[in-house]
């Protein structure tokens, strides 16, 4: 569905994407993870064939965006990061008129729009103004709109950013249903838990390069320990305490509000900490997640 070799994007002297290789296969959910400014959106815009490739090779659905832009765009669905709904149109017409841009006939467009309202669970809002929708509903409508042309490939740039947890959950359900229906999804997100559940494969991008790639499981196995002991001490104590227990894990991360001790046996770490006469305010032993991989590879936590 997507094949990139040595893909680069430069803005003047600045290289936002510095030569990446990516392959996305039919039917998979593929994720781009990375901190702000990693080059995810720049990559997505090249894939969407709305931003020219600076150098390298890019094929989308077997076609070259430089020469086949309209044909590619006709077969893509795009859910951009910023809200691009048409405020002058009601909810139904946002779908219907968008569909007409693809040259879909009126009757089919009406039928599709109706189906997509149901899919997005906003049928009762068909006649409402866009500005009267909640943030979550707007996002669902944007995703519904991106599906009007039955795309082969759906590109989603941070679809859940800025939503409250419940709205995120509803939207994430929508994405799972698309995945089950066999739609190829390419997604950028800041939410590691969601990426872990949804993505079959993903790449971690940092500073314009790919730092790692694989399935969530492969990435966790390769870049983290089985478990993590989280230890919370008093404010300002973490740096000094990290030195006292650094031998207890394979690695320690000092965050502003806690220490993360990486070890395959988290409970043993907690026991050893208590044996040394240290008294954490709170402890938690959990399995490693993509968040830990991210921290390892980029040196940044998502809170940063
Ligand atoms: N049109 C542009 N002109 C100049 N610089 C740009 C342009 N678009 C992006 N950049 C720069 O390229 C770098 C990568 O930006 P990009 O938006 O691709 O990152 P991102 O990983 O999507 O980040 P975010 O998570 O914040 O969306 C940033 O340093 C950004 O300032």
UniProtKB/TrEMBL annotation:
Domain ABC transporter, chain residue ranges per copy: 2-232
Subcellular location field: Cell membrane
Top-level lineage group: Bacteria
Keywords: Antibiotic resistance, ATP-binding, Nucleotide-binding, Transport
GO molecular function terms attached to this record: ATP binding
Topology in the lipid bilayer: Peripheral membrane protein
Pfam families: ABC_tran
UniProt-listed SUPFAM superfamilies: P-loop containing nucleoside triphosphate hydrolases
Family statement drawn from the similarity comment of this UniProt entry: Belongs to the ABC transporter superfamily.
The protein's name: ABC transporter ATP-binding protein
Protein source organism: Nocardioides pini
């Amino acid at each position: 569905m997507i094949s990139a070799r040595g893909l680069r994007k430069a803005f003047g002297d600045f290289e936002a994407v510095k030569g990446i290789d990516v392959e996305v296969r039919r039917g998979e959910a593929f994720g781009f993870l990375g901190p702000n400014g990693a080059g995810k959106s720049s990559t997505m815009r090249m894939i969407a064939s709305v931003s020219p490739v600076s150098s390298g090779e890019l094929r989308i659905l077997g076609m070259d965006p430089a020469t086949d832009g309209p044909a590619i765009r006709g077969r893509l669905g795009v859910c951009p990061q910023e809200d691009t709904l048409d405020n002058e149109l009601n909810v139904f017409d946002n779908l219907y008129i968008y569909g007409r841009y693809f040259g879909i006939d009126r009757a089919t467009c009406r039928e599709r729009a109706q189906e997509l309202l149901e899919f997005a669970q906003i049928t009762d809002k068909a006649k409402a103004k866009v500005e009267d929708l909640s943030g979550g509903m707007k996002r669902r409508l944007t995703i519904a709109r991106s599906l009007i042309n039955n795309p082969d490939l759906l590109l989603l740039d941070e679809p859940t950013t800025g939503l409250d947890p419940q709205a995120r959950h509803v939207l994430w359900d929508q994405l799972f249903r698309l995945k089950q229906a066999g739609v190829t999804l390419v997604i950028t997100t800041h939410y590691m838990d969601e990426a872990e559940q949804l993505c079959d494969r993903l790449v971690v991008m940092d500073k314009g390069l790919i730092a790692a790639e694989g399935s969530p499981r492969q990435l966790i196995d390769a870049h983290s320990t089985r478990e993590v002991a989280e230890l919370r001490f008093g404010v300002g104590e973490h740096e000094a305490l990290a030195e006292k227990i650094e031998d207890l894990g394979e690695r320690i991360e000092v965050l502003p509000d806690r220490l993360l001790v990486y070890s395959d046996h988290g409970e043993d770490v907690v026991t050893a900490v208590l044996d040394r006469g240290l008294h954490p305010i709170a402890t938690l032993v959990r399995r490693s997640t993509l968040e830990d991989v991210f921290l390892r590879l980029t040196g940044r936590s998502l809170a940063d």
